[in-house]
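Pipeline run #58 for the internal structure catalog. This entry was flagged by the ingest filter as a single-chain record with no existing model, so it goes straight to prediction. Upstream metadata was stripped on purpose; only the residue string is passed forward. Reviewer on rotation: M.T. Logging verbosity set to normal.
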Amino acid sequence: MFKHPIASRVICSGIVLAGALMVSAQPASAGECPADKVKPNAQQMVDYKPVGVTDVTLGAIDLGKQPAHIEGRELRFRKLTIAPGGIVPWHSHDDRPALIFVQQGEIVEHASNCIDPIVHKAGDLRPEVHGTSHWWKNLGKETVILYVGDVRKDPHDHNM
């Protein structure tokens, strides 16, 4: 096959430009606090009780019995179902890192370090690490389904 060097560069440049446009078309802050809204202690703790939330542990691994030997820690995988109007109460991730995947629906997070509520939609992945304290509410008409992987220290800790 004949390859012309200029044509190859034009095609490659076009592919790179198309890729860049696709990436830039994605919202920069989908599912996260916009940089200009981040502020320590932006939201204060609220004392809401869980409403319309089902939390099922699908599996767990004692990390002390694994080659990493992380004693006193459990890696678990859960499914949270939040009914319309449901609330996941205020909790901290200072000692329990987690990844939350929104499988279905749309839910609003009220994070301690963000002035505005953060909207999470199906397909979003939310890392929750040291310094994250928050609560969530389903304001929509559809049930929200979250899948959560976290590293729990206290097996009696039933915080969301």
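catalog note: The longest helix spans residues 5-24.
catalog note: Confidence is low (pLDDT under 50) at residues 7-29.
status: ready for reviewer M.T.
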